[in-house]
Amino acid sequence: MGFGPDGWGYSMLAATGTTVAVAACGFFVGALLGCLGAAASLSRLRVLRLVADFYTTVLRGIPDLLIIYLFYFGSSSVISTASALFGAEGFVGAPAFLTGALAIGVVSGAYQMQVFRGAVLALSKGEIEAGRAYGMPSLLLFRRIVLPQAARFAIPGVGNVWQLVLKESALISVIGLVELMRQAQIGAGSTRQPFSFYLTAGALYLLITLLSGLGFRFAEKQAMRGVRRGV
């Protein structure tokens, strides 16, 4: 596990970067879907609330690995069919990074939706009513009152979702993406030293988790500046 000509250190670090990249992409896709889902679940339109409930029920009820398989093989089938129209033959696989990020993004969006929805419901109704009484348009009310206040309540929950996304990124190895878990498997198989590679992978995952936790705690502390907390 060194950094010499025969070492696997650089490969493990590169795979760690891939893990962080695919997890971050999936997380931000989930954040976008979570915001849209939260808005739908809080909408006055019943059909939007039903769509949001269906989304969270399905995505939280199906195993994440199955979602990844469905995204990968489903998109690969579409690409293979489209390629056949232009004379290509055989199976054409979808990009593992893209499909993996989208898959974990759709899953994490179901959880982030509940986080954002709870954060909005935790807001003081008096502040929102005061903004409306002052004559604020809906977008201005959202930007100045709802968004800053809801972000404070959402940060801890969003931090937990990020940790889940980071661990879910290990599942993408099943579709061929060489992230940290896949690289550990390759190294373990090549050197017949599974314990050292999996132990190193575990330490790298833990390092990312610890750094992420510090970042979210700092963000929460900054967001709560000037807010009085009850004793």
Care to describe what's here?
- The protein is mainly alpha-helical and 231 residues long.
- The chain has one domain (9-121, 159-211): Orthogonal Bundle (MetI-like fold).
- 77% of the residues lie in helices and 0% in strands.
- It is built from eight helices and no strands.
- The protein has helices spanning 9-41, 46-61, 64-84, 96-121, 125-133, 138-168, 180-191, 194-223.
- Helix 1 (9-41) runs antiparallel to helix 6 (138-168), helix 2 (46-61) crosses helix 4 (96-121) and helix 5 (125-133) runs antiparallel to helix 6 (138-168).
- The chain is flat, with a radius of gyration of 22 Å.
- The model has no long low-confidence stretch (mean pLDDT 88).
Strand and helix map with partners:
Elements: H1 9-41, H2 46-61, H3 64-84, H4 96-121, H5 125-133, H6 138-168, H7 180-191, H8 194-223
Helix pairs in contact: 1-2, 1-4, 1-6, 1-7, 2-4, 3-4, 4-6, 5-6, 6-8, 7-8
Radius of gyration: 22 Å
Topology-level CATH name: MetI-like fold
CATH superfamily: MetI-like
Q: Uncertain runs with pLDDT below 50, 5 residues or more?
A: none
In CATH terms, what is the architecture? Answer: Orthogonal Bundle
Largest sheet: none
The CATH class turns out to be: Mainly Alpha
Helical percent range?
over 70%
Continuous helix count: 8
Give me the count of strands: 0
Search tags:
MetI-like fold, 231 residues, mainly alpha, 0% strand
Compact overview of the structure:
By secondary structure, this protein is mostly helical.
